[in-house]
Structures are given as C-alpha cells and as structure tokens.
Prior knowledge:
Elements: H1 5-24, E1 42-45, E2 58-61, E3 67-71, E4 74-78, E5 83-86, E6 101-104, E7 110-113, E8 118-122, E9 125-129, E10 140-145, E11 151-155, E12 160-164, E13 167-171, E14 182-187, E15 193-197, E16 200-204, E17 209-211, E18 215-216, E19 224-229, E20 235-239, E21 244-248, E22 251-254, E23 265-270, E24 276-280, E25 285-289, E26 292-296, E27 307-312, E28 318-322, E29 327-330, E30 335-338, E31 349-354, E32 360-364, E33 369-373, E34 376-380, E35 391-396, E36 402-406, E37 410-414, E38 417-422, E39 435-438, E40 444-447, E41 452-455, E42 460-463, E43 474-479, E44 485-489, E45 494-498, E46 501-504, E47 516-521, E48 527-531, E49 534-539, E50 542-546, E51 559-562, E52 567-572, E53 575-580, H2 581-588, E54 597-600, E55 620-621, E56 627-631, E57 634-638, E58 653-659, E59 662-664, E60 671-672, E61 678-683, E62 693-700, E63 707-710, E64 714-717, E65 723-733, E66 739-750, H3 757-866, H4 873-898, E67 908-910, H5 912-927, E68 932-937, E69 943-945, H6 947-963, E70 974-981, E71 987-993, H7 1023-1033, E72 1037-1043, E73 1047-1054, ...
Parallel strand pairs: 18-22, 60-66, 68-70, 74-75, 74-76, 76-77, 77-78
Antiparallel strand pairs: 1-29, 2-3, 3-4, 4-5, 6-7, 7-8, 8-9, 10-11, 11-12, 12-13, 14-15, 15-16, 16-17, 19-20, 20-21, 21-22, 23-24, 24-25, 25-26, 27-28, 28-29, 30-57, 31-32, 32-33, 33-34, 35-36, 36-37, 37-38, 39-40, 40-41, 41-42, 43-44, 44-45, 45-46, 47-48, 48-49, 49-50, 51-52, 52-53, 53-54, ...
Amino acid sequence: MRIPPGTRMLLSLRIAVLALLVSTGGTAWALEPGKSLAQFPHSTWQRSSGLPQSAILTLAQTPDGYLWAGTWEGVARFDGARFTLFESHTTPALQARSIRGLATSQDGTLWLSTEAGLTGMRGGTFFPVHAPPDVVLKDLRTLLPARDGSLWIATLGYGLLRYKDGTFQAWTTRTGLLDDYVAALAEAPDGSVWVGTSRGLQRWDGQALQPGPAFVPQDAELSVRALAVDAEGHLWVGTESGTVYRQQEGHLRREPLASIPGHPISALLVDRAGSLWVGSTGGGLLRLAHGHRSVMDGAQGMEDEAIAALLEDAEGSIWIGTEEAGLHRLKDAPLTPYGRPEGLPHDVIASIHEARDGSLWFASLGGGVTRWFAGKMTTWNTHHGLIHDRVRSIAEDQHGGLWFSTQLGLSRWQDGAFTTTLGHAHGLPPGPVRTVHVDADNILWAGTQAGLARWNGERFELHTRKDGLPGDKITLLKPRGAGGFWVGTSGGGLAFYSGGHFTSVASEGYPMFSELSSLYEEADGTLWLGTDEGLFHAKGGHFTRFSQAEGLFNDRIFQILPDGHGYLWMSCNKGLFRVRQAELEAVAEGRRTRVTSRAYGEEDGMRAAECNGVGGPPGIRARDGRLWFPTVRGAVVYTPTHEQRPAPLAPMRIEELRVDRQPVPLGAEAIPVGEGNVEIQYTTPSLSAPQQLRFRYQLEGFDPDWVEAGARNVAYYTNLPPGRYRFLVEARELDEGRVAPLAELTLHLKPRFHQTLLFRGACALAALLLVAGGMWLRLCQSRQRERELQAHVDQRTAELATLNADLSNRLQELQSTRERLVHAEKMAAVGTLAAGVGHEINNPLAFIISNLHYASTELKGAAQQDGEPERWAEVEQALAEALLGADRVRRIVQDLKTFSRVQPEHPQRVDLHAVLDLALSFADAEVRHRARVVKRLGPVPAVFGDETRLGQVLLNLIINAAQAIPEGHADQHEIRITTRQDAQGRAVVEVSDTGTGIAPEVLPRIFDPFFTTKPVGVGTGLGLSICHGYVQALGGDIRVRSTPGKGTTFEVTLPPAPAPSQQPPPPSAPSGRFPAWRSRLMVVDDEPLLASALARTLSSEHDIVPFSSARDALDRLRQGEHYHLILCDLMMPDMTGMELYETLGREAPDVAERMVFITGGAFTDAARAFLDSTRRPCLEKPFEPELLRTRLRALLSQPPSSPSAAA
C-alpha cells in the first residue's frame, strides 16, 4: 500500500500520539474518580460476540488502536465491532495455541508470549524470536517493554529474561534470582525494573538484581502476584494472600482499602487519574480512588469474580479479562446514574427538586421521597407520615416546607417531619395530584385531573374551564417570567394565571396539544413547549413545530432544559437527546430545514434508556449547572463542565483486499484480474463507540464521487475493468463529529492476454480481414443467388396462379362443409330430443295401459256377475280400442328410440323385412307426396348387425330416393323396394327411384364425406358416407347405378348371419296363481299415478307399498321393513334408482339384490353403463300386465325368506 508523503506524516503523528497515551499513561482521558464502579457503563463480549473462548488471559493495545486479547485458543484482535482470530495453525509464528502474555513496545511492536516461545508482530506481520541454545524460551508469562527498548520476560520455572537488540540475558536462582517462578514485572520512573516472585521482591538497577524493600508488617506469605507503579513512582504490590502493599518511606506498607483478603491478587493497574485498580481471583474487581474504595463483584454485575488481566486503553476505558466470563469494559460516560446501588429506594423516579439548602429531593412512584445531602441519602415514606408512597411532584413554600403531591393528596414536610396532610376531605377531587406549585404569594396550587385546586387556608377551591382554563386535566405548573405562573393542560393548551384570573394563550396558528408536558421560557419571553406531538417554538405569536421529520430524535417530549452551552436537552420515552438551540432557531426562521439530534442511552450512562414524564418537574437544572432527569431506573445527571473531550479517532486502515474472491497482498504491484470482482475491507478501531462510525469511500478512476457506505466496512466492485486505481476511505463519528484520517490503496489490475491492446489489435485486424473476405464472398454469392432467384420467381409465379385457383375452390368447399356440419349437429340434437321425449311419454303411458287393462278385466267380471253381458259390450269395445291406441303410442315411442341414435349398438340376428317395414313407416311423410311405394320382397336370410343402424341405412336410402323426385306427381313416380338372395347366399336390398338421376361425373364421389348434389342447406353430405362405412364394416357392400333423367338404384349386399347356437329351451314361465303366498312389493317411482296403477293391476297376487321418493324409501328400508322385491324407477329427481342401489349395496347388500329396475328408457350413457354393470332385471315401460305378472312370478319363484313374509 502506497501512502503519499503528506498522509504518511499525518499517520505517523497520530500513531505517535496514540503510542504515547498507551505507553506513558497520559492524563487526557480516564475514568472519573468520583463515580462508583456501578455508575460506569458496563459492556461484555463472549463467544457469541466472536471471541474464540471465554478465558481472557492477557490484554494489550497497539498504536493503531486495536485491542488484543490473549486466550487459550490464540490471540483475538478487536476493532470495537469485530474480532479477528490469529491461531497457531493459521499463523505458525505464534508457535503455540495459548497466549499467556501481551505487551506493546514504544516502536509499536506487539509482543506475545506462549508456552513454546516469543513472537513479535510489526506492520501486520508476525515473526518468531529465536534464542541461542543456552537460553530456554519455555512457559513465558508476563512481558514488560522498558523505556530503553529492552523487553523483560517472566517465565514459570525458567527464571527471568531480558531481550534487547537480538540478544538475550537470563537470571535464575543460580545467578541471584530469588525464585525461578517469576509472576510480575514493573518499571520504575528511574528505569529500574521491579521483579516479583513467589519468594519475594527484587529490583534490577541496571547492573544487578538488588533486594527489594521490606514488608511492614512482615507477611507470612510473601508470594508476589502483581506489581504496578503510580505516577509518583510509588510501587504497589499484590500478593497471594490478597493483601496489597504500597511503597512508603522505603518500606512496603499494607493498604487495607486496596486489599481483598483471602483472594489472590491477579492484576494491578494505575490509571491516568491516579486510581488503583485491583483484580483478584474470586474476589472480583476493586478500585481505590482518592481514598474511596469501590468494588464490582457478582452482586454488582461481574459475572466472573476471577480477574485475569486489566488494561486502560487510549480513550481511558478499563478493559477486564476474566477466566470464564469473557471480556468486560468500563468506560466513562457523560451521564451518571443514581439508583438503588447509590441508595434510592425505588427504580421509578417521577420528579426531582433542588431545595433552598442545596439538597436534592427525588420523588418515586412507590418508594416515597428521598433527600440527598452532603453525600447521604435519606428516605421518608408512609411509615414516617407520608400520605402515599407514589409521589409525583415536589414544591417548596416560602417557609422552607416541601409539599409532595401523591396518589391520595398532599403532604408537607419541614424540619425532618411531616406536618400537614391534605386530601379529598379538604376539597381535593378524587384521584392523583399530578403537580403541585407554590406561587409568589405563598399560595398552594394542586393540579388534578378534574381541574386546578387553590388552597384558601381552610379548603381547596377548584378552577375549571368555566373559570377560563383551556382544559380540566392539569399537566404543568411553572412560574412565569412576567409574573404569575403557567398552567399546562391535556387536550386544551396553555394558559397563565396573573392578577387573580386565568388567561388562555391563543393566537393565529396556536396549536392544540393532546398533552403539554413541559415549558422552557427564555428571558425575552420566547417559549419552548414539550408535547406528545413534538417540540413547539413560540415567539411573537408565531408557532413552529419540530418533529422527527425535522430531525428530532423523538416526538414525545417530557422536559426541556438548557445546559448553558447552547444546547437544549429533552427527555422522552427513548432516553435523552440534545439539539443546538441555534439550529432550532434557524429552522424556525426558515434558514435551514433540519436539526441534528444527539441521543443518549445506556452506552452513555443510563441504566435504562427511558425517562419519566408523569410528575412535575420531570427534570431540573440545578444551581451548579448540572441537569437532572428522572428515569424508570433511578435518575441521571449531566455535568456540562465535566464532559471530557473525546479522544481522536484512530487512522483508517485497509485490512484486506480480495480479487475474484481470492485474498491479495496489499502491497502487490500488479494484480491479474479475471471477472473484475474486487472486495476491499477497511476499518478504524474505535473501542468506545463503534456504532457511531459512518464510512465513505471513492475508487478514483471508477467512482465519479464519494460513496456513502454507512456502517458497512467493506466496498464491493464487480466487472471492474483492468487499469490503475486509487481507493480512498475515511470515517466520521455521528455525534462528536470526529473524523478518522483517510487511508488509501493503489490498485493495478493487470489485464489478461485477451484484455491487452496487442490481443485487441490482432482481433481487430483479423476482424477486418474476415469482413473483407466475407464481403467478396457475399458479392459472388449474391450474383449467383440473383440468377437462381429470377428462375425461382418465374416458377413460383406459375405455381401461385395454380394455387390461387385451387384455394378459391377449397374456400367454397369449406363454406359448404361448415353449413353441413351445423346441420349435422342439429340432426344429432333432434335425435337426443326424440329419445328424451320417448322417455317422458313412457311414464304416463305405463299407468294408462295398466289402468286400461285393469278396467277391462274388472268390466268383464262385472258383466258376468250382472248376467247381461250385452249391456257392457259397447264399453268393452271402447276399452279395447283405447288399449289398441295406447299400444300404438307405445310402438311409436319404441320406433323413436330405435332411430334416436342414442342407444348403444347391440349386434344380433336381424330380420331385414321387419326393418324395411319400420323404415317405410318413418319415411311415409316424405314419400307419400312424391311417389308410390312398390315392394317386391323375396326370401332373404337373416343378417347379423344392429337393428337400429340397419334401419337408419335403409331409411336414409328411401328418403334420398324420395328427395330425388319432385313433389306433386306421386301417381307418375314410384319407389321400388326389392329383396332377394344372390348366388353366394347373401341378402340383397335394392332401393330404386324414377327421379332425376345422377350425372356420370358425380358418381365416383357419391360416397365421399360431405359430398352432396343437393342445394346448400338441404343436405349434409354425410348420410351416404356413413351408410357406406357401416355396410362395409358388416362385410357387405353398397353400389349405385344411375341414368340421368330416368332414375337411380342403390343396391345393398349383406352377408348372412351365422346359424344360431343350440341352447336349452328356456324354463317355462310359471302360470296360474303361483306362488301360493302373497308377496310384499315396494314400488318407488316419482310418478304417483304409476304406483297406483300397479297396485290395482297386481293387487290379486301382491301387496304394493308405493313411494314417490327414493330417499323416503331408503329411510323405510333402514328401519328394517321387509319386501320381497323392490320395483324402482331408474331416473328420478333428488335421488335416482342407481344411487339408491349403490347406497343399499354398502349398507344392506341382500336388500340391494332384491331390486328390479323399471324405466321409460335409459337414454343416458351413465344409465346404460349402470344397467350393464349391475346385471339387475330391468322392465321397460309401459308394461303388458300379463307379461309383468309372469316376470314377477319368475322372480318370486323362490320361497319367502321368512315365514312371516308369506301371505
């Protein structure tokens, strides 16, 4: 890394200043001696913070600002925010894992001692120190860099070593050392070195080891564990027994206040303020400052009372290494807390008051009131006569009496006792008294939630809105500069009392506050108002509001206090903050838009970053200039004159450079670059307030301006092109404005071969040649293509002319095809409609036929009984004709089903003559007005096929023949139907007409799909194609002969059906009244009339129980009723017969097996599939009564399942 001369000089100066502070103990920054240890902010770092383990054995700080902590697992470097670990397996120069001693010499070298040897670190590089064979470098412990440049080394069992200019000097018991176990070293002001061993104390005077001063009184255990020398040159000695001695008048005298009896002293430190710090093993930490002793042990928050190391850093903070609880720090802070450790009885303080005698009073919400005077805390509560322990406000009258407002009323204290108590019985409204005030006339005022109460000597007089107050809930009472006092309210605003009446402060733009908590009035009458909506500035009738949008730390303001140094301090729910008053006034005058807030919290001395605003006053400026604020954990005080100037920030450092994710030495001359990804990590060690640091950087040659990085300590660049760059980085502290001197790094990203000018030039030349060759080749190809293209154009022109004509013809055909398809869909819909109509007709037809049969039977019986059958003959004839008509309707419906195209195919032996008769009956309406029908039917064999499909084929041929004949001359035309058997035994059907005939050129296409000779809209062109396909599928053939003007003949040839297989004759149907018992039948049909008709028809043999709902029938069956058969309609609303069967199949399979389905036509795919799968009997509506009885007898031929079921 290259540093310009000016920057190098500045960095050297800054390092020198830091080194001086570390090594000589300058007095610029130190912990304030007047505070107890519990009043310093206490921070800890353990493994979860990045330490390798929890034992901190030794501590040191280098001039660059880093803190170094030696552990059992290596040495950790700390910049205030992050730990970086150096271990023996990654840093071989360390020689061993555990670090037992750390020290920094005047030249900035960090020395590290281990069990295996001595290591130095200078300029970021670790190096081992080698000793000659006669010097043993083992079990090294304490290190002491002396002012003469030498390094003193204490060992555990190998004596004392001195290292200077590469040469070692050694002392052991053989050369005058008291003991080879050396525990402590210290340098006196005259350059002599004190040596503490387990057998006493010695001093090296520059020539030889001399005996140390005598201990007075003589300690039985003279094992020395720690040494320190104060600024006056006095020696302090810590021993194994826990006794601390101080050198006085040539002797070492016991210092009881600094001793921790029974706990070995492990570390001694004299800070820059002259305070002695004592660390012990098991007894915690002790500080002796100006004769005052302060202890921090387990009770005061020290998790581990075994102290291993002590260090004062360049900023005056004390660092503590413990054996099991990690690293601790005590640092000075601008705020000093006072709470339970200092003698307050309760955490939550509501208000603070300074009395005329200089004493301070603290009102707590639960602990009464406490007086602090002459360093002593005294508390009074309800046991001493206070009306209530929740005290909110304090005021002093002209006789020196103090009034305390509480939850239940007021109490007056004077001369150490409570003299007066005032409450609800004296006119105070119920509820707490928030604030109390004694005006210039010594009149007592109490602010309540119901108004402002004035004491007249006998009772309280309550003033409310009716008396001129802006609100009834009183939040603030404070003297007014122009006389009288201010009254703040919640939800109403501000008023003042003067001359016996209240005046509300109201002017143009006057804000209405939901709660006014505090008021600060300047000498010229300018008001600063703290509310829950921010800070308000009132001057000359003009109000300006400040909130977080203008830079305030928080909008809810409890108290406003000036510090006399140009700042306004404000308390809030999130702690304290201050703002320059000049900045606020500049915003109010429109000269700037924002202010800068400096927030104070736990890092600044508060035990809890939350202030209180429930009392009055919620903070004071004492006569000595100190600012006091109540919090939820005691009170805090700020002393403007005692705030130390912060130490300068350490210079910026660039810690690591990575190119394409690989580490690169910072001093590398040229760095090969691949992907161009560069990562630069930087920092400035700031041990006191790292969270306040903000970084910015710039890569000259790439970044056009500075990049604000915030708290991020790494810069990332991607796709960085090769070249030379200069990286600059600097840091600034938010609150104090301290700036760390910038650091720079020169980068030379060396291009790879493909990124060099030579490669690019070669590529450009190759590209140029390639372009020239390509252009020449393209020119030749273009000429050849021009010739080929001309020939191709001529050919395509002719082809396009042919294609255009063909496309025109195809367009006409497609239009015709579309219309035919529409017609075909309509025909399919008509077929489905026919099937549905047939189904709906069969239901009523069933009960009509059944009732007619019943009436006919009953009539015959009645006529025979009457003895005059002639009388009923006419009625019998009418019923017979009605039955004949109903049967005709039944046959029509059956024929509709046959030609509805919705039935599945059932190939079987088919009688062609019967199918022809049926087809002719359907075609009668089309034929009768065009021609006579002549039938010449000869013997033909039965054929094998589907009766429906064959009927459709013949019907199509007959209708085509009729449509070839014009209407109106039926007597002149005929349609001949001829059947015969050919020589191969096949059946032949011929349909001939005397119509217009078919042109010869059309005959070859007559069976093509969608081809028709009829006008558009008259036919689809699909009939003959379908007929041809079906006949061929049966193994037959269909041919056509035609003579234009004379007629056309279609000949259908079909192979004969195979002979029927020999099957045993079906069992004869039962006859007569079999069985001999009456059966019980359930009839389920949504047509109630059908059930009634069946009951009449079958009543002679069966008991009929009708149901019009399948769900009702299911409920009855679930009740256990027995039926021999269940006649159930297949298609019903709500619940179908299929669903009833499936439900019974799950719940009562034996009942489901007694179901017989009745249907007017299973015209859906689901219904047909169901009947095929179940194989249950199915009766078609309408029923022939006698056939129905016969079928039921066959189904009931088995005996009843139980005797009770028999008739």
